[in-house]
Amino acid sequence: MAGRPSTVESMVSMQHQFNSVFQDKRILVTGHTGFKGSWLSLWLSELGADVYGYALEAPTNPSLFEDAEVSSVLAGHEIGDVRDRENLKAYVEKVQPQIVFHLAAQPLVRLSYDEPAETFETNVMGTVNLLEAVRHVSSVKVCQVITSDKCYENREWVYAYRENDPMGGYDPYSNSKGCSELVVSSYRQSFFHPDRIAEHGVSLSSVRAGNVIGGGDWAVDRIIPDCIRALEKSTPINIRNPHAVRPWQHVLEPLSGYLWLAAKQYLEPGSYEEGWNFGPGGVGNVPVSDIATTVVKAWGSGSWACEHPDIDKVHEARFLKLDITKANDLLEWHPVNSVKDAIEATVAWYLSRSRDSVDLQSVTIDQIRAYSEKAARLGICWATRKGGQ
Questions:
Q1: What is the pLDDT at residue 318?
Q2: Is the pLDDT of residue 326 over 90?
Q3: Potential cystine with 104: which of 1, 30, 52, 252 (Cβ 3.0-4.6 Å)?
Q4: DSSP-assigned letter for residue 243
Q5: How far is CA 265 from the centre of its chain?
Q6: What secondary structure letter does DSSP report for 121?
């Protein structure tokens, strides 16, 4: 890509991350055309992986997948539906991946009220279909199913949810993610038990993240895209539920957790086959109103209001926090950025997009590198040479 730094030194500094596990590995990312999937695919490519994707067409227009020309870094990809079991299985057999990240999903709470059956089919049976494919493809050593912080039975309390709290979910989306977690648990016990990993060879985990923000997200009914659309039109940002508290984090935070966990799974099979939370520290649990205020400040103009609240039309949780003690202690994984840093990086990406002839792949990769360098300066294990040995 034009304008993208590609020195040998910079590539080596990236590829030593995560114990160099991903270098020259065949990696399958389902949902690679989505927001998180696009960021993950670009990062894996920078780590020296041969990245393959399986997903529907990019779910939004515009999309990060198109803007950042993610397809140009892929070793191959197929446009397909995870509900199509035979096609998905055939593609996994074709790719023969060593590591699988399953992100393909219907990711929106409010859309799940309009399309409940499709939401359950995609999020639950899509997971079943993926695990069935993994069960019959011997190349797979690590499989990681990405669900959501909303998989927990939300009791609207101020306490953070831990990995051993009950699964649940009020709305179809949240419930489907709880069901997906139960599917993973069943397959782990039935087919991929850690005690028998020498027989089946697959390390299976699930991961749950907080409310993820970052450049290139254009989904409807999400706070950052809603803010950007309003700011670009110089209209006030309309906030549905300004007092709702969520665990906000930049997209690179949970992705670093997913990658580090997958590296540990690959190097120490039989030790990490569980569910894991990757969220911000306690200061990252803030109300929507604070997010909108910080976005406006970073943008340099604009305002927000709660002019047309519709929280009574469909149920959305008011309080949701994740406990990340387990990842802190057992993986030595820690967040790198504050919420303010996350918002500033996110707004900077969108402002870059507004400039003519900008190379958004380079902008995105530069943010990955800046995040990685900051993590290394802080001594975060996955980013340091000590952690890469």
A1: 56
A2: yes
A3: 30
A4: T
A5: 18
A6: I
Question: Among candidates 225, 170, 212, 232, which has minimal Cα distance to 342?
Answer: 212
Q: For the domain that residue 146 is a member of, what is the CATH number?
A: 3.40.50.720
pLDDT score recorded for residue 177: 95
The alpha carbons of the chain give a radius of gyration, in whole angstroms, of 20
Q: How far apart are CA 15 and CA 21, in angstroms?
A: 9
DSSP 149-191: GGGB-----SSPBPTTSPB--SSHHHHHHHHHHHHHHHHHHHT
What percent of the chain has a predicted confidence (pLDDT) above 90?
77
The pTM of this model reads: 0.93
**Which DSSP symbol is given to 58?**
P
> What's the number of domains the chain is made of?
1
Task: Sort strands 237-238 and 304-305 into parallel, antiparallel or unpaired.
Answer: parallel
Q: What is the pLDDT of residue 307?
A: 65
24 occurs within a structural domain: yes
8 Å CB contact between 319 and 273:
no
**What's residue 251's pLDDT?**
98
131-187 pLDDT, tens digit per residue, is 999 999 999 999 999 998 889 988 766 678 899 988 988 899 999 999 999 999 999
Alpha helices by DSSP H, 47-121: 64-67, 85-95, 109-114, 116-120
Question: Does residue 27 lie in a domain region?
Answer: yes
Structural domain range at position 114: 8-308+318-383
Residue 74: alpha-carbon gap to chain centroid = 18
Query: How far is it, in rounded angstroms, from Cα 372 to Cα 14?
Result: 8
Q: Are 329 and 184 contacting, i.e. CB atoms less than 8 angstroms apart?
A: no
Question: What pLDDT score was predicted for residue 315?
Answer: 53
Using CA atoms, how far apart are residues 335 and 161, in angstroms rounded to an integer? 17
Question: Is 60 a residue whose pLDDT tops 70?
Answer: yes
- Residue 197's φ and ψ, nearest 5 degrees, are -65, -25
